[in-house]
Amino acid sequence: MSRSLRELLDDGAGELGMTLSPTDVDKLLLLMIELRKWNRKINLTGITTERGIIIKHLLDSLTVVSLLPQGARLLDLGSGGGFPCIPLALVRPDLKVTSVDATLKKIHFQRHAARLLGLSNFEALQLRGDTLAQSHGGSFDLVLSRGFSSLPEFTALAKPLLAPGGIIIAMKGSSGGDEAAESAPFLEECGLRVREVVRLRLPASGDERSFVVIEAI
Ligand code: SAH
């Protein structure tokens, strides 16, 4: 693995206020390699370059780390190729991570990646969001998603899955604040409210990101 890619990941994590262990860097780069390998056969992501995957999948996934409560039971809804759930499970072994996606081939990739990375705090389930409440109602301290759906659609699915005191986090681009404001009446009808909108820039690219953090009223 070239030194510059390793540096990109290390420096980017540093910009996010994190120090990655050399083992975690190795494993994240391995995840990038596996994703590219599998992506030649099955469509997991439109981002295909090494740098692109490091910045827009690996580092982007890690942007949310500081918001995750210690020991939380976390659900990633619509996790696709395993983002953000796999990098989060790796760098935060205290979390218990459940990943859900409707597409079986994506879940197969995630299980393969989790085995390769030796993740014991991670499970990947092929399910649809709308059936999850039957099996996992009230089970999670944190339900999050990235690139999944509109805020109202996501929160409607997430709310019945929250344990008491649990929170919802939607990882968005620059539009998170506007979407949060537009969705406020709907959220209130559902017994939810926006606790905060956190804005940040992605390391290396400078792209704008925002997290909409939502709690039960
Ligand atoms: N979170 C990933 C993938 C985003 S794409 C990332 O940021 O890279 C959205 C994903 O949601 C797709 O993989 C799709 O299969 C999944 N999806 C869409 N509707 C769903 C539903 N109702 N239940 C579960 N997964 C769903």
Architecture overview:
- This protein has 217 residues and is α/β, with parallel strands linked by helices.
- The protein is built from eight helices and seven strands, in the order H-H-H-E-H-E-H-E-H-E-H-E-H-E-E.
- A seven-stranded mixed beta sheet has the order 3-2-1-4-5-7-6, sandwiched between helices.
- Strand 1 (73-77), helix 4 and strand 2 form a beta-alpha-beta unit.
- Helix 2 packs antiparallel against helix 5.
- The N and C termini lie far apart (48 Å).
- The structure holds S-adenosyl-L-homocysteine.
What is this structure's SSE topology?
Layout: H1 3-15, H2 22-39, H3 50-62, E1 73-77, H4 85-91, E2 96-101, H5 104-117, E3 122-126, H6 132-136, E4 140-146, H7 151-158, E5 162-172, H8 176-189, E6 192-201, E7 208-216
Parallel strand pairs: 1-2, 1-4, 2-3, 4-5
Antiparallel strand pairs: 5-7, 6-7
The structure holds S-adenosyl-L-homocysteine.
S-adenosyl-L-homocysteine (SAH) is lined by residues 78-81, 83, 100-103, 106, 128-130, 146-148.
